[in-house]
Specification:
This protein has 271 residues and is of the alpha/beta class. It has 9 helices and 13 strands.
Length: 271
């Protein structure tokens, strides 16, 4: 089944980056010369996505301004302006609520959700690789994390594994370390059935008082299943200061014009 649309939830407050996020959206923080959201957008384009839906809020106008400029310069993006939509999320009520805000633009067709916070360097496109393996069940990108870190993620309860695919029998949002069923964590790439909107609209707040997307995924397992996709590539948690810094250093180290700056810095530190 073809995936034509992607939702970018960009309405969060970015509190871990205060005070800069009082003026600049977290998604506009830079990895050298491009903001995080630009990289996620390029990943979606490489996957063949045709419609891009930004769930935004007050104070995020710079995202719209940025893409307005990019779309008018074909050297950046070769897409039509009509392919981009913006939806307002009046208050941050969680990822599930952000996805629900896009309901009227999605309809009942399957779609992708991508978090710019999860900066994933893949040989082609992480979401594209997921689409190639999509079978109609809800699918999430997953990776193993240190067991001490499981309380930061949605964690899969694994029923079986087949190559890069994991069949999950349940999922738990931010479990205590002693309660986690595995070390397979969900990271910010999803392929979802359009039926998820019916579940989200009836869902009560979960962890943190927010509408959790993982709670909707759990409720849908009997009817839709849940598949974890063990993606290739390197992922950086750019929702944290340490993750953003690591991403910047990694990208710089891979750039012919910048890697010498990194090397010379470390040489100087060792003197």
């Amino acid at each position: 089944m073809r995936i034509r649309k992607v939702v970018f939830p960009v309405g969060g407050l970015g509190t871990r980056f205060f005070p800069i996020t009082r003026a600049i959206p977290k998604e506009m923080l830079g990895i050298i010369d491009k903001p995080l959201i630009h990289y996620a957008f390029e990943e979606a384009i490489a996957a063949g996505i045709e419609q891009f839906i930004f769930v935004t809020r007050h104070g995020k106008d710079s995202i719209e301004d940025y893409f307005d400029f990019m779309f008018s310069h074909s050297e950046y993006f070769d897409i039509k302006m009509g392919s981009v939509c913006y939806v307002r999320q009046n208050e941050p009520k969680g990822l599930g609520h952000a996805v629900l805000c896009a309901k009227n633009l999605i309809g009942d067709e399957p779609f992708a959700v991508m978090s710019a916070d999860d900066f994933i360097l893949h040989t082609k496109s992480c979401i594209g690789a997921m689409i190639e393996n999509y079978d109609g069940s809800n699918m999430v990108a997953t990776m193993k994390v240190a067991h001490s870190e499981v309380s930061k993620y949605g964690i899969l309860d694994v029923e079986s594994e087949n190559g890069r695919l994991i069949k999950a029998k349940s999922v738990d949002e931010k479990p205590a370390v002693e309660d986690a069923k595995s070390d397979y964590a969900i990271v910010g790439r999803y392929l979802l059935s359009g039926k998820i909107f019916d579940v989200l609209s009836e869902l009560k707040p979960g962890v943190g008082g927010e509408i959790q997307l993982t709670d909707a995924l759990l409720k849908m397992i009997p009817q839709c299943g849940l598949t974890g996709f063990k993606f290739e590539g390197k992922r950086f948690d750019c929702g944290s200061k340490s993750g953003l810094l690591a991403a910047v250093l990694h990208v710089a180290s891979q750039n012919e014009k910048l890697k010498d700056v990194i090397e010379n810095f470390y040489k100087g530190e060792k003197r």
